[in-house]
């Protein structure tokens, strides 16, 4: 609930804040009840990672920034959890990289689509895609396949935070470069990503924006070098090690 005050010096401040934002999201019709369960899974992994951005995640966030800056048509996919947790931060990332924002839901209802679009607009977004839904991702059932033809349908690079495994795999099969934020390095979403970012979305999005701003004037060659030097297998292995060893890589 938004009226609950959490003392900033509470040792688990960020985790409690995250929980309240998700609860608020459910109250506002932005986040689904399924989203609460996804949040619980995420929290468990974040706890094991020491609730910090591990060095391999920071490298993945820099590679993601380079991909977004190099892209012809980057799109940031937004679901109910992401909209509740980092709406303003996503708008900033879209601005820093020239990306489109598109709402994309696992449990799609027109009410929730519109609530999320309005919520993003309240946080400064101008154009938000997703309502036209005139494109399809091959290989998925009807409702879950819907995208905007001039949005994710046309994108070469897509940031998909907290995406379900099926759709992450289907987008990868379409040949899109997928940047996935997921705290579980073993999830199919992370496993099918071009760039798996094993970090909390709350830390990941502002950090990708910071890297994108830093790289704003970098040459295409330099951006390409950052992309080429990123090793997805090593990043996944480093995250698994960090979980086993209690937050240290
Ligand atoms: P799979 O990818 O193996 O098919 P799934 O997609 O069915 O699994 P879900 O519960 O739908 O699993 O997805 C939620 C995922 O999002 C989990 O892997 C969870 O760790 C991750 N997650 C939840 N909250 C956050 C968060 N705040 N930041 C980053 N990742 C999160
Ligand atoms: Mg998943």
UniProtKB/TrEMBL annotation:
GO terms for biological process: coenzyme A biosynthetic process. It catalyses: (R)-4-phosphopantoate + beta-alanine + ATP = (R)-4'-phosphopantothenate + AMP + diphosphate + H(+). Keywords: ATP-binding, Coenzyme A biosynthesis, Ligase, Nucleotide-binding. ATP binds at residues 19, 41, 182-184, 188-189, 200-201. GO terms for molecular function: acid-amino acid ligase activity; ATP binding. HAMAP family: PPS. Homodimer. This is 4-phosphopantoate--beta-alanine ligase. It comes from Halogranum gelatinilyticum.
């Amino acid at each position: 609930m938004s009226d609950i005050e959490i003392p900033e010096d509470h040792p688990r401040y960020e985790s409690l804040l995250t929980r309240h934002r998700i609860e608020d999201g459910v109250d506002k019709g932005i986040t689904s009840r399924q989203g609460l369960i996804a949040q619980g899974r995420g929290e468990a992994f974040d706890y094991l990672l020491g609730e910090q951005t591990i060095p391999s995640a920071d490298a993945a966030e820099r590679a993601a920034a380079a991909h977004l800056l190099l892209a012809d048509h980057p799109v940031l996919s937004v679901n109910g959890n992401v909209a509740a947790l980092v709406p303003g931060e996503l708008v900033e990332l879209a601005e820093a990289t020239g990306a489109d924002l598109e709402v994309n839901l696992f449990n799609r209802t027109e009410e929730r689509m519109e609530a999320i679009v309005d919520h993003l607009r309240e946080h400064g977004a101008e154009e938000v895609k997703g309502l036209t839904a005139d494109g399809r991702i091959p290989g998925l059932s009807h409702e879950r396949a819907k995208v905007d033809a001039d949005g994710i349908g046309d994108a070469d690079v897509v940031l998909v935070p907290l995406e379900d495994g099926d759709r992450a795999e289907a987008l990868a099969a379409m040949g899109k470069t997928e940047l996935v934020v997921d705290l579980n390095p073993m999830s199919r979403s992370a496993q099918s990503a071009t760039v798996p970012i094993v970090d909390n979305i709350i830390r990941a999005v502002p950090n990708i924006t910071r890297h994108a701003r830093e790289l704003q004037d970098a040459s295409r060659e330099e951006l390409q070098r950052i992309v080429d030097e990123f090793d997805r297998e090593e990043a996944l292995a480093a995250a698994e090690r960090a979980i086993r060893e209690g937050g240290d890589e």
